[in-house]
Structures are given as C-alpha cells and as structure tokens.
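Blinded run. Sample ID left blank on purpose so nobody reads anything into the name before looking at the predicted structure. Input follows.
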Amino acid sequence: MFSSRLLPMLSNVHRRCRHRLPPMSHFHASQTTAKTNTDNNLNIAVPKNGVKFSFSRSSGKGGQNVNKVSTRATLRFHVDSASWLPLEVRERLRQQNSNRIGKDGDFSLSSEAHRTQPRNIDDCMQRLQKMVTQACIEPKERVKWTGLGKETKKRRKESKRRRSDVKKSRGKNKKFDF
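Blinded prediction complete.
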C-alpha cells in the first residue's frame, strides 16, 4: 500500500513534530470512497463526454509557463440538450447558477487554479459535480404563517376577559374604603 520509503514517516511518533499519527488502518483505500447522496435517490455523475473543454492562457504568476502554455480550462455544455440531467435538475441548475448560463443556454465554468491542464479539467469537473449534486436536492415546501384563526382570537379574548375579572375582584375592601 505504501512504499518502504514512507513507512518510517508513518510510524507512531514522527521524529520532528512529536505528534501521534493515526494507525495504518486509517489509511485503508476502502475508506476513501465517495459519499453517496442518501437524502435523495438522484445521484448523477457528470460524464466527461457530456461536456466540452476549451483552453486558454491563465492569468497571474507563473513566469514563462503563463506566457507559453494554455492551462486555463473552460467547461461548456448546453443545459437544455444535456440528456444526462433530468428535467427538474436542469431547471434547478439553471435557477441556482443563472450567472453562469449565457443567452444561448450554454453553461460555462472555468478553472485556472493549477498549472496544468489535467488538474484544471479535474477541478472543473469536481466543481460541476458539486453544483449538480446541489441541484439534485429538492427544495422544501415552505408554509407561510397566516396569523391567528378566528377561534383562537376568540378564545384569547375570552381568557383575557376572565383574567381581568379575577384582577378586578381583588380590589380594595369596600367596607373600609372611606
């Protein structure tokens, strides 16, 4: 699982920082599986052949790498013709990310966080997957509070009247009132 070079570093106590490292069982590959969406039955994976990529030069630092290599990845797909998305998910995606959709209906997302094209492509795919997963969640129906009903208002006024009568009866003794 790990190379023999890494095993001394992963012993119980690291030489430099004296922190205890978790046991080797925590590094098992089966525990690093992706989380599934348990709230909904919709678990949509974004296919790479369902989107198109274009590349351009990134901005920022990087020396000659920035000037020579086109590393910025821009992901595009037409929302209405994306057959891999159910209709209600398409509508929620369109509503939640309206600033990313152009007049022609193309969804665009770009990444220039990394210095290589493949890492920027993966970053775009992961970000799109998060957006699609968010769009899969159906919004809750919110019930608007309309106020108190007529019966509730009537009962409230009646209890206030009874309480008022009780307090009035606690008045001063009329015999000794001069």
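Unblinding after everyone has recorded impressions. The longest strand covers residues 72-78.
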